[in-house]
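WARN retry 2 of 3 for item q-0093 after timeout on previous attempt; input resubmitted unchanged.
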Amino acid sequence: MKISTEELQAFTSVIDCGSITAAAEQLGQTTSGISRALARLEQKLATTLVNRTTRRIELTEEGKLFLGRARQIIDAIDEAEELLLVRSQAPAGRLRVDAASPFMLHVIAPLIGDFRRAYPAIELELTSNDQFIDLLERRTDVAIRIGSLQDSTLHARPLGQSRLRILATPAYLARCGRPETPAELARHSCLGFIPPTSLNSWPLRQDEASDWPITPAIAASSGETLRQLALAGEGIVCLADFMSRADREVGRLVELLSSATVATHQPIHAVYYRNTALSARISCLLDFLASRLPTLL
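OK item q-0093 returned
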């Protein structure tokens, strides 16, 4: 006999709620119904999943092994249902989105008008943080993160990648000269980030090295601050294409050391905690961004 979703839900709810009675209240069923569903599940699996006493419920070793898989199955079913609901219903409600200020200014903000016209019932709250944030602490539903991901507890969806280039203004180059090799950067004003210092290793090849550490003449926490400093002629900077594309197209910034530059792309992900009530809004936003970002990154 095949296991039913009703039996899986009964099992996971008993564990989450701590008792059969509490699980029955949560699921809107009778205590005897939950008890029978749990017994059927154990019978089908030919094993005991929980040890029941008058005071508490304890997972057996087999129950611990099965619990994770049971949650994955229920989550997959819920996600499939929600994807269909997105197609049939107009998502509504508040959606809090966070991104580093350069990405918010150059990528997200220009798309907001089209998104609001497509989903007028979604209320957007946009915040900018140049450091990684705790989504739960900051009450954020979706965060756009640039670079390698570190938090494995979050769901992540890749949105694209953006290439890094070494740039300066024509005015700066006229005043200070154009570097022809990475080593010549030592006599120039380089614009970089405050720690972590890994952000100040530029993708330049010389001899055996494939990156080139620079010592910033000016350090800042935001890439947008560095862009503005570069536009003001204060030095040479390494920026992602999504920030500099418009500047390069009109000649405000020009690329340097292209023959020595290693083609390096920063990955861009949307990260979020899975939440049933929010999933339709999150899916709409991520699908929208995925369809628009390739031309902007």
